[in-house]
Fold this sequence. Notes:
Layout: E1 12-17, E2 24-32, E3 35-38, H1 40-46, E4 63-69, E5 74-89, E6 96-105, E7 117-118, E8 126-129, E9 140-148, E10 151-155, E11 171-174, E12 179-187, E13 203-208, H2 209-218, H3 222-226, E14 229-230, H4 233-237, H5 243-257, H6 260-274, H7 289-296, H8 302-314, H9 319-329, H10 339-355, H11 359-367, H12 388-396, H13 413-424, H14 428-445, H15 449-464, E15 470-479, E16 488-496, E17 501-504, H16 513-531, E18 537-541, H17 559-563, H18 574-577, E19 579-583, H19 585-588, H20 594-604, E20 609-612, H21 619-627, E21 635-638, H22 642-654, E22 659-663, H23 687-701, E23 710-714
Parallel strand pairs: 7-12, 7-14, 15-18, 18-19, 20-21, 21-22
Antiparallel strand pairs: 1-2, 1-4, 2-3, 3-6, 4-5, 5-6, 8-9, 8-11, 9-10, 10-13, 11-12, 12-13, 15-16, 16-17, 22-23
Helix pairs in contact: 5-7, 5-9, 6-8, 8-9, 10-14, 11-13, 13-14, 13-15, 21-22
Amino acid sequence: MGWFSRPAAPSSYAALLREGDRKAAGAAALLSPNYLLTCAHVVNDAVGRDLLCAERPTGEEFLRIAFHGSGGTSQYGWARLSVWVGPEPRSGDVVWDGDLAVLELKETAPEWATPVVWRDMTEGLELRAWHGGGVGITYADTVVGFRDGPGCYLDGSLTGAAIGPGYSGGPLRVKSDRTVAGLVIAQVMPGQDPLRAQETVRRSWAVPWQTVRERLARAGAHDILAGCEVVAPDRIARTGPTEDSVHQIVPLLRALLDDTARRADHCRHLAAGLGLETPFGGEQPAPTLDELARLLLTEERALATLTESLTPVVGGDRTTLNGLLALGRVEPAVRLLSVTEHEQLHTALLRVARDEPELIPRAAQEALRLLELPEALTRSPRLAVKDVDAVVQALEEYPDGRGTTTGSLPVPALLRLAEFVASAATDPDRRWRLRAWCERVAGRLGISVAALAERRADAEAWAARTPAPVTQVIVRLHRAGTAEPDRFLCEIWLGHKDGGRTAVATPEDPMEPGEIGRLIRQTADGSETANGHAPTRIDVVVKADGLNIPVDEWDAGSILGDLFPDLAEPSTPLGGRYQVTLRCPALTGSVPTAASEMRRRWAVGGDGTLVVDESSHDIMSLHKLLDKPHRDTARVVLHGPPERRQQLLHVCLAMGVPVVLWDRNAGSHEDAPRMDILDPTGPLDKLPLRLQEFRMSQYAASTSDEAARPALIWEEGELALPGPLKLADPS
C-alpha cells in the first residue's frame, strides 16, 4: 500500500426518502448541482406505489431527498420528477429493462456534494456500492460479470455486505479510481426459475452508463446529459505514466524535495487538495520520489497543486520548478490548473455566466480569435451556467497561444480569456478577483509580469472600444439537406454603421425556422442593449434555391416566451418587427459584371421602375429591356407564375438589378393587383419600410392565403462575409 491512499467512502451520498417513515427508499447519483439520477422503482417506493409500476407518477409534488457527507454532515431537500423511463419487464426473465428517473432539485445540491464522473462499464471492473442511508459500513463490493442486453450482472464475494433493498439507484463506483460505471438496479432473488437458490447468492444486476446515456437521450434529456462529466475512453485506457516520464521527473523532484520532512509537508498539502488520505506517522514519514512522480503524472491536478505550494519557497531561482512545469505540459494526464485555482475560476465564471451571459462568448471571440472555440461558446450568444465547467476544462487543454514581445512564456488561453472577461465585467469586485487570480496563476507558471501586462493591455483596449452602432443583422442560411428540408444551418453577423462586421456565436447543428427567428430577435435585442441602437434591417443571405424561403414569416418569439416556453402568446413574425430583405451574392458573384452593374444602377437609377407584366414575362424580353431602355433602372417588380418568376429573378440579378420585388404567393399575372397596397413604384428608399408596415398589418389581421406575401431583394453595398476557412493557432 502506498503513502497516498483513497478514502474508503465517497465524500457524499444521496438518497430518496419514503413519504411514510422517512427512511431511504434507495440511493441516487448526483448528475450535476441541479439533477439526481435514480431508479424509477425507487421513486415508486418513495411515493407508495407498486415497485414496477411503469406509468409516470401523476402530479407535480416534490419528493424528499437527503445528502449525507463525511463527518456526519447531512442536508435534506426536495426534488421534482423531470425524466421518467419506466420499468419494462422482460418476458420469461427475472430482470427488467428501463427503470430510470431524473429528479430536478428544488435548490442546488450542497457545495460538498460532488457530482459523479461517469465511465463505461466493462466486464471485470471491481465496483463498490453503498446503501442510500449513508452509513459507511454498508459498503458492498462486487465485480461486473456478463453483459446481457442493456444491463450487466454483478457478482459479489461471500464475505461483507451484499447489495439488497435500499441500494437501488445508487452509483457503482470503480474501486481503482473515482469514476462511476452505472447504477444499482436490484438483487436477483433466490429461487426464481430457472435459477436455483445457490446460484443467486450475491448476484445482482445494474444498468451501465452506456445504457443510461442511451435511454436518457431517447427520453429527450440532452441538456441534462450535456451537464454530466464523463471520462473519455482513451483516458481510461491509460494504465499510468510511462517509465520514461517517471525517470525524467524524479531528478527534478529530488532537487526540490530531497528533504524528507519538507517533502512530507508539501505532500500532505497535496493530498488534502486531491482528497487523498495519508498515514499518521508509521515507518514511512513521506512518499518515495517514485510514488510522488507517478501521482503527479496520473492525478490531473496533482502537479499544478504541488507547484502551487512550492512556488513561494523556491525563491528567485525557478529553473528546476520551470523544468517540472515544462514536463507537465507535454503529459496528457496533467491539467493546467491546481485544485484551488480551478475552483476559484469556476466560481467566478459561474457568477459572470449568471449575471452577464453574453460576456464570456463575446470575450472569447476577441481573446482567442485564432483558436477554434469550444462548442459551448459558439452555439449561442449566451453561455449557460451548466456549460461553464466544460468551457474551463476544454480551454485548459488548449496550446499556450501567441508569444510575447518580452520573450517570456506565452500566456495560456484560459488566462487570456479571464483577462478579457475581467476587463469588461460590470462588477468592480469581480474584475479585481479575476485579475488577482490571473496574477497568482501566472506567477506559479513562471509567466513574467510584463507578458501578462501585454495581454491585460489588449483586453483593456478591447473593452474600451465603443463599437459603431449596429444598423443591420446579417443572416446566412443554408438548407440542411434533402433529409431535413425544413431545417437550416445559420450564421449571423452584426453590421455596423462604419461598415464593420461582428460575428455572433450560433449553433453548428441545423435548426427549425422558429429557433432561428428567436435567435435573430435575441441577437437584435442584445445589440440594442449593448450599443443603445436597435438594428432596423435583417439581411438574409441565401443561395439561388433559397430566394423563396419565407424568413419574414418565421416566429421571432418574445422575452416572455424565452422565459416561459409554455406560455401561449400571439406569434410575432420577423417581418413585422424588422425590415427583412434578401441577398444572393452566390448568384450575382457568378456573373463577372453583376457587382459593378449593381453599383452603377444605384448611382444613376433614381426612382425608375420596370414592372414585368405579361408583355415582358419571358427571359429574352426581360434581358432586352434591362440591356437597353432600362439599363439604368435599379428596381424591378416581377409578376406572373412562380415557375417563370424564378427564371426572371436570376436574369435580374445577373444583369445587376439591386432591387427586385415579387409576391411569393402569386399564381399568375391576375394576382398583380394584390401588390398595389405596397405602392411598389413609389419612393425607393421607403420601400423596405412599406413592406414592414404591410407585413405587420397583414399578420395582425390574420389574412387569408389569398393575400400577397411580398419578398424583396435589396443588394446595397459590399457584403464581405467570411467563408468556411478555419484558422488554427500558429503555435
